[in-house]
Amino acid sequence: MSARQLVLRQRAELLCALCCGGSSEGLESVLDLLLSWGMLFWEDYQNVRVPGRALCANTRVLLDLVYTKGDETCRLLLAAFKQVLPEAQRAGLSFGNCRTADLENTRDDTKELHGTAIQTLQTDRPGLVRRLRDRIEGALEVLLDTGSFTPSDCDEVQLPVYTPSQQARRLLDQVRSKGEPAAKVLLQYFQQTEDHPSPSNQESPPKECLSYQKKLRSTVSAQSHFLSTYGGTSSLSLEDIYTEGQLELAQGGSEAQPQTGALGLEDVVGLVGTLNQEADTVLVSGEAGSGKSTLLQRLHLLWARGAVLHDFFLLFPFSCRRLSSEQRELSLRELLFLHCCWPDGDQDRIFQFILDHPHLILFTFDGLDELMQSFSDSEQRHCCPTQCAPVPTLLFNLLQGSLMKGVRKVVTSRPEAVGPALKRYLRKEVLLKGFSPAGIDCFVRKHHRDPTVATRVLESLQSNTALLGLCHIPVFCWIVSKCYKELLGCGEGEGSPKTITDVYLMILQHFFQRRVSQRNTMGIGWVQEHQDTALHLGKLAMEGLGASCYVFTGTELQKCGVTEEDICMGFLIRSKDLSSSTNCKHYEFLHITMQCFFAALYIVLNNNLDRSTIPKLFQPQARQQQPGFHRACLGHCLTQQEGALMEANTAAETPNLQITATFVSGLLSQRHRSLLLLSCPGPTLDRKSKQVVTCLSKGMQKHFKSIPRPVEGEKKSMHAMPGFVWLIKCIHEMQDSRIARDTMAKLEVEHLKLTYCNIGPVECTALAYVLQHLRNPVGLQLDYNYVGDVGVEQLLPCLHVCHSVYLRHNNISDEGIRKLIEKGIQCERFQKIALFNNKLTDACTECFAHLLKMKQNFLSLRLGNNNITAAGAGQLAEGLRFNRSLQFLGLWGNKIGDKGAEAIANALKDSQTLVWLSLVDNGVGSAGACALAPLIKNSTLEELWLTKNCITRTGVECLILALESNTSVKAVWLRGNELSPEEVEEMTQQEPRLTF
Ligand code: ADP
After folding, report:
1. Where are its TM segments located (predicted)?
2. Of residues 373 and 282, more confidently modeled
3. Ligand 1 pocket at CB < 6 A
4. How many CB atoms lie within 10 A of CB 989?
5. How many angstroms is it from 294 CA to the middle of ligand 1?
6. Which of 271, 522, 560, 720 sits 20 to 30 Å CA-CA off 187?
7. How confident is the model at residue 265 (pLDDT cuts 50, 70, 90)?
8. pLDDT digit string (tens) for 228-245?
9. Residues 212 and 148 in one domain
10. Domain that includes residue 912, residue range
11. Which of 498, 514, 544 delimits the end of a domain?
12. Residue 784 Cα, ligand 1 centroid: separation in angstroms?
């Protein structure tokens, strides 16, 4: 269908798309584009945009005009709509074949018309509007000073009914009407301000706003001074304890985009990694306890002190947990002033300043996963900042950019709760991956001011690598540091903590012990002694989880039997801002994982528990099919409406129930039986434990059943889902190798793929614990996770069942790899390793050489995109010289140069096994290529990859000569070397196996 027909057919829809929101922004943006592409003349524009005429009437005139202008104009009109409309509005429309490339051509054509300053203003109009809206006053000042504008021109531009973008357009229109000299003045102004951006160019904010900023800074500073886990009573402030976590761009994991350097705190908001310029929302995602709230808190504190984010004049911090408790409908204005900071001065002026300067404002939303309702973009559109709406509606419209476009937003969430609906609106996504090994060290030393204690804690972690692995998650690191006496007291033997449940039992004991220290009566029956507290808090935790409720009123506490004494134990803390704004006290658990742990305790210790509770906990589908499950445990927490809502939104709640199930598995393991036996009858414990084992086994079977039949000639392969990793973690918590063996007995695959599964050291410990029981060898593919050196060490116990290990992009350094290879040499079945995009240097090549010498059945070594130089290649060559089995060697993206290539070629020249060699992008020149030629003569090589090097004609001629006496080589890849098109042509003719 022609573009003209499309415009005609969709007239009503196009009209509605631009008019239904009531704002003229859409129409004006379309006009900007059409003007800049030269599709509308100035007269046309004036005929369409008649001030005072209804928006719909103006839009109709535009549609008529474009239709009469013909097919090409219609095509560009559709292109402009496509560019301007938000994705949700584009959905039902058909845009024909308007391609961006065409638009670029059109733009280039019109650029050639750039003769006068007025034409420049027209062709660059969309960009100029964006740039002008933040500097209207500055531009007007210059125009006034130069006599281009009169004061009444300025007033017309600055009419209060206009938004900043509209003011920018009116200014451009006025300038045009004044003629070429005014246009030149404006362009000059752009040049000057952009060459020398300085704060002095920015208008100074009004007095009220400055004092509001001061108040906001001091509120934010007071709120972020202490971490809740340090309770405010501790002498450690956030400043004292904050330790950098590992931040990474979510998209940094593709092969096309190698790993970027570590991100700093300010990069979260900064430009780096921006995927969608138009979007304002940055997502920070990470597991529970990985430090998301703490990261935001640090950002808030530093902003409040004026240490970072200087571009943002006001920062509004929100907690989704608290927003969830907001029952009222609010306007954006109320949301800011009520939830963050109440202005003492002229509220209207302050709010107007916020509206007028979106780029100076930053909103942060902590814990999107804790919002009762999951993010949805089918939510009612809400664009008016002064109109009231339910808080989730405000929040979703803010994140999408329908409300307060241009304001930067940072939102944190656990990964499970972020669906494609939100991803569409993201500027970028940053992953928070907990502490690095150096971070753990640093945290422990900050936590313990006494260096001898810190050293002892660190030594004890080094001797218990499973616990060290757990400490990568800051919340576990905090517990371990807090309970250092218990930790140091239990030695290095069987009793030392290994699992997450062990760690939480340790803190449970620690808090209980604190209360009884005077009496000193904590014996073997310490759980029984505090059973009432555990049950009260457990009930509260459990009901809260079922209702996605994390903040509790005093009444709710009472209903669950929580007493003052229970509160004094320290597991519950007062909610900061809610408690101060109302008379009623509000409480929350120290951390969400603590709430999950108490819920698990409740399930285990409650002797009157419904028998179906455990199966339902382990089977998310069963929960969804039986809404009664929620109701059964919600009680008072939910109104009817909320209950209905919640049943539709289990995405956020599932991760918490999974953590709870993990704790239930741990508590019902044999190793804690004697501890619980005093509180629960043995048969009840046994029954519950059996239920868990059955659930785990059934859960696993389900995963095994979903494995597709292998395509003929391919290996039977399982692509594991995150749910599989969770089950593995539950099995690990049980610490019973019989259970691990039995559940794994039916897994018969040759390849287990766990890419992009958020696998860190903790998951590696569990994986190795379970996978070591596999009967048949597997290829274990863990690419694009964050295994790290500690994770690698955790994997060693299962290395003997792996014929191949794939660890691409996992932040592994020489130290981790040395341990892996040391063990690998002893594993008969271990034959392949892929380590693309890690942090390997020449310091690890010696160990690979040793592996190659020792293992005469080793097949494939891939070390692409690391930092191996000629020296490393030389060491590797020492091993290659003695190896009689290697078939694949990949060194893509290192820096081995000619020298390295020569060493490798020399070592491999007599190989009777090598079939594939890649030295892509290694700075190899003709000398290297000539050294490789004898390899080609070798009868086994099939593919030689030399793309992106600096090989010239001489080098290629050597290769051609070698190919003359070879029939096994299928291709030599040479694209991106130093050859002219004529040489390429000539050499391809000479040797068709060369691929340029
Ligand atoms: P999340 O929001 O991801 O669940 P939190 O930020 O609440 O995790 O972290 C839980 C606890 O872990 C904090 O209360 C604090 O004790 C500790 N913690 C987290 N991140 C850091 C950090 N960067 N520096 C020091 N301690 C941290």
Report:
1. none
2. 282
3. 227-229, 241-243, 245, 286, 288-294, 443, 474-475, 478, 591-592
4. 9
5. 5
6. 271
7. confident
8. 888 755 668 888 899 999
9. no
10. 760-990
11. 498
12. 24
